[in-house]
Predict the structure.
Amino acid sequence: MSNHIKIVRIKAVNNALKELRDQVVFVGGSTISLYADRPVLEVRPTDDIDVIIELLNYRTSTAGRTP
C-alpha cells in the first residue's frame, strides 16, 4: 500500500474522531512507513489503523472536587 493511501486512510479516521482528534496518537503498521528515514523493500501490509487515547474514569476525573 502506498504512503498516499495510508495518509488518506489515517485522515479519514482522524476526521471521524471529531472532537477527539486532538487527543489521539496513530500507531502500528499503518504508520511505520511514514516514519522510515530510508526506503526498505516492503513494509508488511496492514488493513487496520491503531489509535491510542487516554481515558479517565469518573472517580479519577472528579478526585479532589467537592460536590
